[in-house]
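Input chain follows. Return structure tokens only.
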Amino acid sequence: MRKWRQESVLDLYNLALASVLLVAPWLFRLTNSAARVEFWAEGAVIGAISIGAMVAYANWAEWANVALGIWLVVSPWLLGFTHTRAMHFSIVIGAAIAYFAIIELWLQYDHTHFPDSAQQNNAQTHSPQT
């Protein structure tokens, strides 16, 4: 049986945010066509990457989510939908996606480079004081 990584919950959060991106044009009645296409494309790609990362973790998938999250933050200015509801939505969702991916990269780095530190901390907190 496959053992799930604890960090996979962050990919689940990114999958949920990708789902919100996919339905955002209808949910928020976005009228800007550039924003609609952007949200659909980004939602599909981020969702696919997040599912892939849950099934078979790879650092590149998290770095791709970081890049796509940053793209969502800057896309309103580059694609011309500034000063709209879509702009605010894009910035918040993009920052959250990048944040979750960075946290997962950091946790994975910590787990692979310092595997004993987590076990030592856990043992210290659960050992009886004499």
